[in-house]
Amino acid sequence: MVKAIRIVRISKEEAMRRLGDVPEDKRFWSHDGKVIKNLRELGTALNNMSDETFRYHSSDGKADFSKWVRDVVGETQLADDLAKVGTRTRAGRAVAQKVSFLESRM
After folding, report:
1. How far is Cα of residue 85 from the mean position of the Cα atoms in its chain?
2. Which of 24, 25, 65, 67 is most buried as measured by Cβ atoms within 10 A of its Cβ?
């Protein structure tokens, strides 16, 4: 199956906003006690958290990471990707790719 490539145009300012810290009251509070304030920290947290913590936020119909990325960060494509991944490793990879893409726009 060939995956369609989607061309995305994003301004430097928008890339900086999406990579920046979210307001204090919108930070992601992980089940393991970590507080995440931006996409870079989410990537690090996913790489370092236990599979149990990942499952807490993504099983039983939950999509906590995806919802936070969509509703707070404003990153729809990454949110869709996170809703589909089934493992912590894949989620971390998806976030790393998005961060790299956004950094390339700055």
Report:
1. 11
2. 65
C-alpha 101/C-alpha 12 separation (Å) is 11
Q: Helix or strand or coil: residue 4?
A: coil
**Residue 48's pLDDT band (boundaries 50, 70, 90)?**
very high
Tokens of 71: 């509703």
Whether the CB-CB separation of 31 and 53 falls below 8 Å is answered with yes
Rounded (10°) angle between helices 12-19 and 39-48:
40
Residue 60 is predicted with a pLDDT of 80
- pTM tops 0.70, yes or no: yes
| CA atoms of 20 and 39, how far apart (whole Å) | 8
38 dihedral zone (left: phi>0; alpha: psi -120 to 50; beta):
beta
